[in-house]
């Protein structure tokens, strides 16, 4: 049997914690931020806004997919605090800097599965 | 105004480009650096199709462009040009043109200049009226562009002026005036300027100067005042 077809083992994750993680990555900008921070560990809000705006317009094939200032505002007031509350990142609102939190292996596995599916679905298909 | 003084104005402009994509896209950042652009690469598992670049001017976000368009311009600028399809119908390519406008590029190849020229000629064709002034260093270089310009002249009301060193006797083509230059001012220069019959939305110009090492340094612009200035300067060369 292909090992990818086996159910994901997530020992130590309560269903409440799983709900929180799924809600946290339910929004595309938060998946983009998480993916970027897994590569770079820490980033300024300006850098994260560049990533979300650029990646969104590349995926949408739309030159005006999103406005930079509006995106930055939604990152600062909504997406980064949601990721912070879930313990996925720590967001220093004063310094406008986000840093990946130290995650348990089971949490990291769930988040990686979601972001892998996301990039596979939206970025690799023709 | 000479081309050199015009280009000098853009030497200190602060343009930064960050390329985001998988490891294979790292070379795009390196190619941008050879154009004198402050470029960096940041790893991101976007897949190749969705890799992108962010352009910042004076530290402020200016544009995000698909990397495929940037790669095409840097590596294979004439791909798709010369086909019957209008080359500027590609939105990614159009976005790249506007994103890199007013940016001094240090190492432009003749193919990149030709691709840009063709897009501007197509714009002139679409507008169908106004004055188009071009200089390809010497008149003999115009020979390879002759069929294209004959179509431009015969299908439109464009007033076309071709400048260049006097090394070839061009044929008479209705709608095209040739200006053999004895002056050296435009000898090292590749230039194209279109006034769109006064319509500021459609004015465009390309100005590049051949460097001692071989490639050209130059820029293109859609800034109507700058286009007017370039038009005036070209006219003055012939007076």
UniProtKB/TrEMBL annotation, chain A:
| Domain spans labelled DUF7344 | 24-97
Name the Gene3D superfamilies for this protein.
Answer: Winged helix-like DNA-binding domain superfamily/Winged helix DNA-binding domain
InterPro entries assigned to the protein according to its UniProt record, in alphabetical order: DUF7344, WH-like_DNA-bd_sf
Superkingdom of this protein's organism:
Archaea
What is the designated name of this protein?
A: DUF7344 domain-containing protein
Automatic annotation (TrEMBL), chain B:
Q: Where is the DICT domain?
A: 106-210
InterPro entries tied to this protein: DICT_dom, Uncharacterised_Vng0742h
Q: Which Pfam families match?
A: DICT
Q: What is this protein called?
A: DICT domain-containing protein
Species name for this entry? Haloarcula amylolytica JCM 13557
């Amino acid at each position: 049997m292909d090992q990818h077809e086996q159910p994901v083992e997530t020992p130590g994750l309560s269903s409440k914690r799983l709900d929180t993680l799924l809600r946290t990555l339910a929004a595309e900008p938060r998946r983009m931020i998480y993916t970027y921070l897994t590569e770079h560990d820490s980033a300024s809000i300006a850098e994260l806004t560049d990533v979300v705006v650029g990646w969104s317009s590349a995926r949408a094939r739309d030159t005006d997919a999103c406005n930079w200032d509006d995106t930055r505002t939604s990152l600062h007031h909504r997406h980064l605090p949601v990721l912070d509350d879930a313990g996925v990142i720590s967001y220093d609102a004063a310094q406008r800097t986000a840093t990946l939190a130290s995650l348990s292996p089971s949490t990291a596995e769930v988040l990686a599965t979601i972001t892998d599916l996301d990039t596979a679905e939206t970025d690799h298909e023709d | 105004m000479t081309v050199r003084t015009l280009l000098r104005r853009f030497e200190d402009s602060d343009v930064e480009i960050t390329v985001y994509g998988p490891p294979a896209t790292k070379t795009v950042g390196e190619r941008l650096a050879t154009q004198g652009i402050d470029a960096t690469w940041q790893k991101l598992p976007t897949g190749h199709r969705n890799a992108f670049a962010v352009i910042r001017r004076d530290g402020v976000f200016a544009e995000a462009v698909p990397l495929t368009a940037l790669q095409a311009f840097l590596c294979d600028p004439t791909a798709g040009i010369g086909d019957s399809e209008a080359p500027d119908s590609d939105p990614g390519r159009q976005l790249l043109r506007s994103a890199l406008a007013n940016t001094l590029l240090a190492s432009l190849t003749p193919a990149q200049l030709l691709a840009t020229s063709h897009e501007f000629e197509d714009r002139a064709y679409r507008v169908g009226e106004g004055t188009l002034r071009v200089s390809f260093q010497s008149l003999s270089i115009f020979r390879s562009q002759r069929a294209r310009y004959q179509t431009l002249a015969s299908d439109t009301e464009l007033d076309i002026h071709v400048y260049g060193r006097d090394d070839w006797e061009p044929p008479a083509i209705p709608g095209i005036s040739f200006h053999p230059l004895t002056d050296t001012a435009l000898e090292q220069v590749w230039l194209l300027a279109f006034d769109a019959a006064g319509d500021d939305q459609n004015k465009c110009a390309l100005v590049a100067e051949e460097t001692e090492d071989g490639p050209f340094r130059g820029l293109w612009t859609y800034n109507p005042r700058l286009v007017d200035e370039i038009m005036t300067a070209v006219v003055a060369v012939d007076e």
